[in-house]
Every structure is written in structure tokens, then in C-alpha cells.
Amino acid sequence: MADLAKMRNEIKKIVQRDDVKYVIGYEKGTYGWRVSPSFARTPEEVDKFIFSPLCVNNLAVYLVLEEKLPLPKGVEKEKKKIGIVVKGCDSRSVVQLVQEKAISRDDVVILGVPCSGVVDPRKMKEMFGKEIGTVAIEDKGEKYVIVIDGKKREVLKEELVSENCKTCQYQNPVISDILIGDEIKEKKEENYSKVKELEEKSTQERWDYWKEKFEKCIRCYACRNCCPVCNCKKCMAEKTTPVWIRRSVSLSENAGFHIMRSLHTAGRCIGCGSCERVCPMDIPLSKLYKKVEKDVIELFDYRAGLDEEEKPLLSVYSVDDSNEYIL
Amino acid sequence: MSEFEPNIVAFLCNWCSYAGADLAGTSRIEYPPNVKAIRVMCSGRINPMFIVNALQEGADGVLIGGCHPGDCHYSQGNYYARRKFQIIRKILEYLGIDPARVRMSWVSASEGQKFADVISEVIGDVKKIGPAKNINRI
Amino acid sequence: MGKDRIGKLVQILSRNTLYAPVKRDGITTFEKVEKVEDIKFDYQNSDVPPKNVLFPQTETTFKYTLGKDQKIEVPKENGKNIILGIRPCDARSFSILDKVFEKDFLDIYYSEKRENTTLIGLSCNEPGINCFCTSLDGGVGDKEGLDMLLTALEDEYFVEIATDKGKAIIENSPDLFSDASDEHAKKKDEINKRAESLMKRGISVEGIEEKLDKIFDDDLWNEISMKCIGCSVCTYLCPTCHCFDIQDEATLREGRRIRVWDSCSNPEYTLQASGYNPRPARINRIRNRIYHKYKYYPKNFKVIACVGCGRCIDKCSVNMDIVEVLSRVKKI
To answer: Final residue of a domain: which of C166, C197, C228?
Structure first.
């Protein structure tokens, strides 16, 4: 992150605009290495904003999470914009939301920040789980410089960075009103190595692997709630007429829920990895969603979250779609 | 020891594959009786969750029957169904549910024999791999 | 009791249904065990609280079949349960849960299991970084809710008996236990004191009830609730949260009625059949949750419905921190 002061200045200008309600960004968390989403309504509140490899959350979810409560008669809907700080992956979420008309492009002011990777919270917890004092991280290319209580430590980047970020192809935001920081020139390739590893196993081995994972699931729906693209007013998992997925927690229902969610986000998931990050039971969801992403690219040459004007995957078809496995 | 008799649920589109199944019946073509047909108006109506729910409720295999591409009674329904089918099939295969359980076929209203052949093939394949116990609710 | 004797103790205890912390694919939960090798004793605290044992996530209240041989059957839980290795905070949560499951109308599913369960605790030698049980009348060696408490000394466990049920265990296998000396007691006190001094978080909850009364409409709740994503992680992993829903799962011929965990952070929790929702926004639901734990529950049952285990702080993905919220409440 090039210059924190510069970022805060740019954001202050946005917050002071008449047509902006508030700006969503990141602030220091309440202990150790945690970072919390922050909502700034005044320039003073912008002073809390930070940006570092610890800023893992995908903030685009707040654009669709805000409740639109019924207004009393005579009161008009507020037409103000929302500013949002986005990393490369998060910007694709915003594009996807605009594509699906969940939000309008005019509703947001996008502050793009080129990102060279964020940490994996599980690895952070393992290494720094006992630190209650503030842990600050600076990205120095191949390594992270970590400052705890004034003492510096150096750790190799690959020991802490999220697996997702190692093969990120969109480190620069694909859409932004204002770009804060220098564009990253480095190009990485997605190789789907973890997905291929699992694809190569036998059917029974794959089932045994996923059975163990799905049995852990407690159906907290954190994965669904943190995903910007999961924004149905009434989730199919909670419908009772008819019942698609029962409320009881068992292998069958848990598997059904995860199959359902991966179906509904096919061609819409941009691979930010939030679902895996927030899961309290450490279920490796990115292996499943990356597989769907790979299939959608191979079968239909379709990539989510890149073009605002593109049509959603399942609302178009091609006469030449694959006829594989069809009798 | 009686042989395993699979339970196949077939979602058949009203205009083509259901009519094809009908024709197989009126022409007295013999095919295995393990299939339970559910008529839908178009294969595009099929929500991929139908397949998942069928497997949860005890079906050993699911077949989706639709019109040939280009001949859909509602012009594009089967194209959408084809897309959805490809996605759900790949997901289920990745999770460890044998891909032989979820099949799709294009059967037109005049192809009674083809319908019988498709059913026999699907049932034969499912018989080989045994009952579906993965996401069975029961 | 010597640490080498724990295997024998487990063998004797597993004649009943024994639950102990087990590490399953990276997650520690309380599950049925039969051998001491399956038990993981060096854990800070389990990811899923042991309320799962007495108040399962999915519980059948009755099953039925229709038709000629129509019948209704209520599942019978017989046999004694023992939970081994539970932390004092989690044990305390049971005495808090008892109050709501036994008020006015006895919840037979919970209380039958509770009566037949013996809790053998393991005190914490090192607290987690988000633990704050000492702020809520708890402690690393607190015996509230426990029948027996083990404190790990160097080569042995210091055993303390709290109730008759705990006494029964010792009387059942007297050769495993020996009298403790004053030395042992002193070492145990030292260990407990050291553990409590390592606890870095704390908040005084004195007067919190009255304070919350006054600040219902404060902007603080708006600020806090904006970052909540409304998942159910804090409620499901909280040892004292006890909301549930009753659902019917039925086919044409048979079915069952189940009780499942529910969460007040879901919008559907208060959704009425008319479509009206008295708690439509996250601010209503989060404010309600904090008020329930720190004001409504103490008003009804004279005890704060929080044991300070810190799981909600650990597992919340957006860093919702109850200790920070309470300290801000006090400052208003």
C-alpha cells in the first residue's frame, strides 16, 4: 500500500460530497491482527481507515446487505451514493452486481486499490493467534514485515498469504472511479492446481473427502451471507413451500445446501474466497467454487464480473453448446 | 439374492420426450419398468435442484428428456436446460456422485424405440454401480 | 489422580455414554468416545460448544407413521451421559441454560438428558486470547455447574469434587484416586492464578443492566450493526444461546417433528405469517441479542447469559466484539 495519507485524503474528498451517504472501508480491529469493515460518514471518521494485507473482507456485500425498509407515506427514497473501497477481486463483485442489476452503476463511487494479496486468517491465527496487541503488516514484495508492540519480524509472504491470492489474475481493480495507489504490473496465472488434484481422484475418494467436510457443516449460512452475489430476498434454503433443503442438519441436507449454492452462483462467483474465510468449521469451499468457475470457462467461455454489459450466464445460450454426455 | 432394481426418475418434456415415451408404450416396445416419469411442459422448466432432491429422496438415477436442439416447442427451453444440466452434472461428479446417475437425452415425439433404448441404457448403467447412498435422506 | 491413570478412568466411564473433546479434521467438538486415544486434552476450547450434547442441533421430538399401523413414538433417551474435559465456562453455561429450560414448563428433552449427565471439568492452564470469564463471575477453576473438576498439574490431575454425582465417580473406582496433599492444593492455586493473570480481556459488567435501559435509541447500535452480515455463527457457537425452531419433516406416510437451532440474527426469526417483521433490520436484531444477554435474561433469571468464552469474538468474520461493545456502552 503506497500511501495511507494519500488514500485517506482521496476518501475524505468523496465523503464530503453532497451526493455520498457514506464510504465503506477497513479499520483496525479490536485485537491482534484483526481488521474490521468501517463506515465513514464524516472526514474525521475517515482517519480510521487503513489498507494492508490484513484487509481480507469483501466489502461489496454491504452494497446489497443494506435493508430497504418500507418508507412512510410522503418520504422519498434517499438517492445518495455509497462509496466503497475495493481490491481487485472485490471490484469484480461490484461489476457482477451491476451486471445483474442488483445495484445501479450510479449508486456507487468505487475507490479501487490495487492489491498484492491478503493474508489467510487461519495461517495468521496459527502464527499470531496469541497476540492481543496490534499486529501491523507491510508488504515488501517477497516478504511481509510484521510489527508487534514495536518489534519487527519478517515472514516469507507465501507462508501467510491466502492461497487464492497466489494465482490472482485481477490484482488491479477492473472498474473504479478513482484508483488509489500504483497499478501492479505483475501478472499471475490461475492454474486450478487444487481443483485438478481433487479431480484426479476416484469418485469414491472424492465422495469420502466431501463427506467428511459436509458432516462438519453447522448450516450457519455465513458463507451465504458474506457473499455479495448471494443476495436473494428469500434464500431457497429457507423456503418452506416447497421445502428444497430441510432445516435439519445432516449429511444429506448439508450436501444439498452446498450443491444448491454452487449452482446458484455458477457463472456469478468471482472467486474472492470470502466463503472459505468466514466458515467457522474450516470447510474448503474454494475448492468447490473454483471447480465451478473452471467448468464455466471451459464449457461456455464465460467469466464473471468483468463486463458490466454482459448478460448473465444462464440467461443466454449458444446453439453450439457442448452436447457432451447427452444421449 | 435378488438383483438390485434401480429407481430412476425421468423428467420428460410434454411435447417431445413424453410423447416419445407414449409412443413406445402404444407400439408395445418393451423396456425395463424401473423408470418413474414426471411430465413437465418443457425441459427448460427443470430446476437443477429437482435432480438433487430426487437423489435425496431415494432415486438411484435421474434422466432429463427434452426436444432436440432447435426443435423445442418453446423455441429455447432445451438450450437453457442443456446449460444447466452441464453445470449440475459436473458439480455432482466433482463431489463424488457417480456421473452415470444423472443423464440427459434428446428424444423426439416420433422416437419411441430411441426412448426405450435410452431407458435401457440408463438402467443398465445404474444397475452396475449400485444404489445411491450418498445424499440419500432416508 | 496420576495422568497415566486417565486411560483407565476413560475405560470405566465409557461404560456410560462418554462425550469428550475430539479433533475432527481440524475442528474440536464434543463427541462420543470409547478410547482415550480419541480424546484431545490439549485444546484451548472446542469450536462447537458442548451444549450440542444436551441440546442437539437437530433433535427428534416424535416420529409418526400413518395408515393401518398408525403409531406415534417419542424417542427415549436412557442411559447416563458423562461429559469429560469440559471447561468451567461451558459448564457454567449449563447452569444458565437450566434456568430457561426449567422455568414454568419443564422441557423434557433437555432436562431428562441434563439429569442423567455428569460433568467432569478440566480447568484452563492457559486462557484463549479472547476469554473473559473472570469478568462474568466465572474463573479458570470455577466449579459452578460441574460435578467434578480436574486441574492438570505436572504429572497428575488435581481432582475436586463438587456434587454427589462427582463423588459417585470416585467411589466407583477408588483405586484410581488418592488423597491430595497441601502441596498439591498450593500448586493448583498457583496454576489457576497464573492462568487468570494471563487473561488479557476484561470488562466490568456492574450496572450494565441499568445502563442498557437508558441507551436503547443511541446511535451506537446503528454503527455496530452496519458491519454485521447476519449469519448465525455467534449464536450457534455461543454456549448460552438457546433459541430453537420446531419443524415437521414429512412424507405422505410417515414423518417426524424436529427441534433445530435457530438464530435471532436471521430476519426470518421474527417474520410473522402476515408478512410483518417487528425486527426487520440488522440493528434491531443485534441490539436485541445484546439486550437479551445482558438485560432481559438477568431481569428474568438474575444471571447474565454470557460466560465469557470468547467464541463469538474468535469466529466472527467482521470482528464484532462483545467486549468492545460493552466498553462503549459504559462510556456513553
So the answer is: C197
State the average pLDDT for chain A: 90
Assembly ipTM? 0.94
Query: Domain residues for C35?
Result: 3-197
Q: Does A319 touch chain B (CB under 8 A)?
A: yes
Answering whether pTM is above 0.80, one says yes
Quick check: A142 contacting B, CB < 8 Å?
no
Q: B91–A296: do the CB atoms touch at under 8 Å?
A: no
Same-domain check for residues C44 and C188: yes
Tens digits of per-residue pLDDT, A275-313?
999 999 999 999 999 999 999 999 999 999 899 899 999
Cβ contacts (< 8 Å) between A213 and chain C: which residues? Answer: 25
Span C275-299, pLDDT tens digits: 899 999 999 999 999 999 999 999 9
| CA angle in degrees (0–180, nearest 5) for A91-A160-A169 | 35
Mutate to test the interface with C, among A67, A119, A223 (most CBs of C within 10 A): A67
**Domain identity same for C63 and C193:** yes
SS3 sequence, chain C? CEHHHHHHHHHHHCCCEEEEEEEECCEEEEEECCCHHHECCCCCCCCCCCHHHHCCCEEEEEEEECCCCCEEECCCCCCCEEEEEECHHHHHHHHHHHHHHCCCCCCHHHHHHHHCEEEEEECCCCCCCCCCHHHHCCCCCCCCCCCEEEEECCCEEEEEECCHHHHHHHHHCHHHCCCCCHHHHHHHHHHHHHHHHCCCCCCCCCCHHHHHHHCCCCHHHHHHHCCCCCCCHHHHCCCCCCCEEEEEEECCCEEEEEEEECCCCCHHHHCCCCCCCCCCCHHHHHHHHHHHHHHHHHHHHCCCCCCCCCHHHHHCCCCCCHHHHHHHHHHC
For residue B53, the chain A residue with the least C-alpha distance is A244
Q: Residues of B with CB below 8 A from A252's CB? A: 56, 135-137
**Closest to B79 (Cβ–Cβ): which among A295, A317, A324?**
A317
Do C74 and C12 lie in one domain? The reply is: yes
ω before A242 within 30° of 0 (cis)?
A: yes
Residues C149 and C278 in one domain: no
The total of structural domains in chain C comes to 2
Residue C20 lies in a domain: yes
Q: Which residues of A touch B90 (CB under 8 A)?
A: 291-292, 295, 299
Chain center to CA of C45: 11
Q: Residue A318: its chain B contacts at CB < 8 A?
A: 79
CB atoms A207 and B80 under 8 Å? no
